[in-house]
Amino acid sequence: MRELEKYYDGLKTEKEMREYWRENKIYDFVYDKNKPLYSIDTPPPTVSGSLHIGHIFSYTQAEMIARYRRMRGYNVFYPFGFDDNGLPSERLVEKETGVKAYNLPRSEFNKMCMETVKKYEDEFKELWQAMGFSCDWNLQYATISPNTQKLSQKSFIELAKNNRAYIKESPVLWCTECQTSIAQAELDSKDIDSCFYHINFGLGDSVLEIATTRPELLYSVVCIFVNPNDERYKKLFAGRGDPGAPPKVKVPLYNFEVPLLTDEKVAIDKGTGAVMCATFGDSTDVEWTEQHNLEYKKAIMPYGKISDEAEFIAGLRIKAARKEIVRLLEENNLIVKSENISHAVSVHERCGTEVEIIPSRQWYIDVMSKKEELLKAGDKIKWYPEHMKNRYVNWVENLKWDWCISRQRYFGIPIPVWYCEKCETPVFAEIENLPINPIETKYTGVCSCGCAEFIPDKAVFDTWATSSITPQLNLDTAKKYGIEEKDFMPMSMRTQAHEIIRTWAFYTIAKSLYHTNQIPWFDAMICGFVLAKPGEKISKSKGNAKFSPQELIKQYSADSLRYYAATARLGTDMYFDIQEMQDSSKRLITKLWNSSKFVLSHLEDFDPKYKPEKILPVDRWIIERTNEAILESVKWLDEYEIGMARKVADDLFWKDLCDNYIEIVKERLYQPEKHGYEERKSAQYAIYYCLFNILKIYAIYIPHETEYIYLNGLKDFAGEISIHLTEWEKPAEIDSKILEFGDILKQAISDMRKYKTENNLSMRAEIDEAVIKAKPEFKAWLIETEKDFTACSHAKKIAYEF
User: Fold this and answer.
1) Other CB atoms within 10 Å distance of the CB of residue 720
2) Contacts for 605 with CB less than 8 Å, ≥ 6 apart
3) Cβ atoms 137, 125 nearer than 8 A
4) Is 745 helix (H, G, I), strand (E, B) or coil?
5) Residue 515 has what pLDDT?
6) Helix, strand, or coil here: 252?
């Protein structure tokens, strides 16, 4: 045993401990069939910029669970990956270089992407290591790696051949900034200031007033709809029969006529009750166009300009086109009135651009027909907190589109498909040839139509199409360690933020059902956000993080950040308060160091193998109180409530060990000649048990300091090479009587301290009498504890009230 230094140097110690762990391979995964396997599906951070404090909190909370399970005797499989392909990484490169992807040859741009993501992945890994993460970096994966590309392409081909993935020319959600299709899950809602224009359309010899926020789409209007139950318009359809020729409405400026039809979706009480159907203003326009077999008129192009076919505004950007059309309408006295409004629009979550709907040929995965199976899968998963399941259910129930998985971008996993030049039939790569890039590899087969010429698909997969197979990626790695699929799947736990339940969780569940016919994991641990201000999460895109994690670690230490990260209830959002972090973490780290120094100074002649024949009541109390805290911590951590478990540890450490027990037994430890040598051994046995188990609980929160104390004070007693390889005690039933006895003592000490404070006395001041109130059944234990209580209270006499 080596005496601990006077002061704890966290920054120096943390570097030493991380080197010790690396040298001794403390966290290297070794498959042990004799231990239950606990596998964690960790979110691969998106390589789209530097990490912020929000990442530190959520990833650290999950890492604490890995440490906890390891110390509970599990064989922990804890991999880390990087989501380093797709639009987020492309936008990062475009931002850093000032170059747009479409202005460079694909190969040159992809090379720039690879160099950039490598730089950030090294930065990410260095940060996780600085935080003391207990993962095995030999299990690392990247979503752009050749092996991941192979598995992702294989997943797609299997789905396509089983008719679960399909290609279709249809209206699709489209980002004109990123110039790619997107999925429903990639939409955010944003309130914008806009204008409601009331425009006169022609209806025979009269006019029909219609309100719209998108007058630039007048060219693409294909129909006007009213509600069949709207009394204002019933006369227009009277006597026409069914199917009679519908009334015609003339579109202003363009002067072509479109039919007036009825549909119950039209709100009678909104505006004039007449709405225009343009191709396409929203998803309702898409539904109406398909339902009523309406024509498609091209208005908005994929690059965000108006079609050359649209008179007056051809070639203009959308907002400029709107401005010009409004000018022309006003010039022709066609605007009845305009109202300034604020309304919600759908924007692309990656760039904030308002989303359009345009026809395009894309690949989809069928999810709309699988809603029931997806909901049943959600029921089989245990969600923590439980209410997070509602987000999943609401998302599934409100799905409107199948999952569009193709993207018209550059840096991603190629879609392994070619198309017959003659009949456009898609053909797929052979599994043994994966990964493959169809742009660089010529297809040598012959189409069923006899054509031997093929055109490669130039699109790439949506990044979620790949990150949704992380359980399969982890299984592929696990097999290399001799783990069979039946022992690995479903994985034990998925950890992630609540905002990506609709994407990562949903897509992973869908892929798992299709590929394995089972859920991907048993538990879902859903973390909250760290907020910059009310309602605004800290994010890379907003750039609203005041402090970088690297700066905070260098100034305050990783253990300080980790301890503070365990403050909140699971799934709840919290503010990052640097002063609160500094105060709470420094206080705990300093007190744990000083208390450990005190305890270890009394263990030089201690033998943990020797259990005293008689353990005094107060010593039995702290042992049992420690056992109670262990069981309470287990209860909370099994539910992923690391904050509640930390509070249990804090209460045991501060209120029981430091505030009371140490003060009670201090003189017995220092003066065995007065209290008895066997009595001192009883105190040594109890205080060793308490401190060691407190260090074990705190080890998941502050791994560096607890390891250092263990190596320099307890390792010789325990024998294990690291505290992180020791296991928590597994107490049986708790003795409630001895705990009640402890509460009596704590109350007596509190009363004594209150008396001294109220009388301006030092805590070491002698008093004539201290009173202990208790039930008669505790009399014998109190008599045995009288010497300790007398020393603690400095009372001349102990009086009892039974």
Assistant:
1) 12
2) none
3) yes
4) helix
5) 96
6) coil
Dihedral-angle region of residue 281 (phi above 0 means left; psi in -120 to 50 means alpha; beta otherwise): alpha
CA distance 365 to 415: 13
Q: Which residue has the tokens 């699929």?
A: 485
What is the rounded distance in angstroms from the CA atom of residue 144 to the CA atom of residue 83?
A: 8
* DSSP for residue 778: G
Cis previous bond, 43, omega within 30: no
pLDDT score, position 688: 97
Cis peptide before 435 (omega within 30 of 0): yes
Q: What is the DSSP letter of 306?
A: B
- Helix 371-380 to helix 389-397 angle (10° resolution) is 170
Q: Which amino acid is at 279?
A: T
Please tell me whether residue 311 adopts helix, strand or coil conformation.
coil
3-state secondary structure 523-548: EEEEECCEEEECCEECCCCCCCCCCC
| Beta-strand runs (E) in 451-550 | 454-456, 460-461, 491-497, 521-527, 530-533, 536-537
Cβ neighbours of residue 670 closer than 8 Å, sequence gap 6 or more = 602
CA 474/CA 253 separation, integer angstroms:
60
Contacts of 698 (CB under 8 A, 6+ apart): 592, 649, 653, 705, 706
Amino acid, res. 186: E
User: Minimal CA–CA distance to 621: which of 714, 506, 746?
Assistant: 746
CB atoms within 10 A of CB 288: 21
> Taking the alpha carbons of 163, 165, 169, 171 in that order, is the dihedral positive or negative?
positive
Rounded CA separation 618/625 (Å): 10
Distances (CA, A) of 525 to 61, 389, 493, 497: 10, 11, 7, 8
Q: Which residue has the tokens 């039930």?
A: 775
Percent of the chain with pLDDT strictly greater than 90: 85
CA distances (Å), 523 to each of 41, 136, 386, 474, in order?
10, 21, 10, 16
CA nearest to 378, candidates 404, 400, 403, 397: 397
Q: Do residues 498 and 571 lie in contact, with contact meaning Cβ atoms separated by under 8 Å?
A: yes
Cβ neighbors of 559 (< 8 A, separation 6 or more) are: 10, 14, 132, 585, 589, 701, 702, 703, 704, 705
Residues 6+ apart with CB under 8 A from 262: 225, 226, 227, 228, 233, 237
652 contacts: CB under 8 Å, gap ≥ 6: 625, 626, 629, 690, 694, 697
In the prediction, which pLDDT does 761 show?
Answer: 95
In 3D space, the residue among 536, 572, 535 whose CA is nearest the CA of residue 387 turns out to be 572
* Tokens encoding 110: 């992809």
Residue pair 211/199 in contact (Cβ under 8 Å)? The answer is yes
Low-confidence ranges of the chain (pLDDT < 70): 1, 239-244, 533-545
Look at residue 539 in the predicted model and tell me its pLDDT. Answer: 62
Q: What is the CA radius of gyration of the chain?
A: 34
Helix (H) or strand (E) holding 406: strand 406-407
Whole-angstrom distance, CA of residue 367 vs CA of residue 164: 9
Distance CA 368, CA 401 (A): 7
Assigned token pair, 322: 């709107």
As beta bridge partners, residue 612 has none
DSSP output for 185-196: GGEEEEEEEEEE
67 — phi, psi (to 5°)? Answer: -65, -45
The residues, any chain, with a CB within 8 Å of residue 76's CB and separated by 6 or more, are: 29, 38, 39, 40, 66, 69, 70, 134
* CB burial of residue 706 (10 Å; 0-12, 13-18, 19+): buried
Q: Which amino acid is at 171?
A: P
* Tokens standing for residue 622: 């702290």
Is the torsion defined by CA of 94, 97, 103, 108 positive or negative? negative
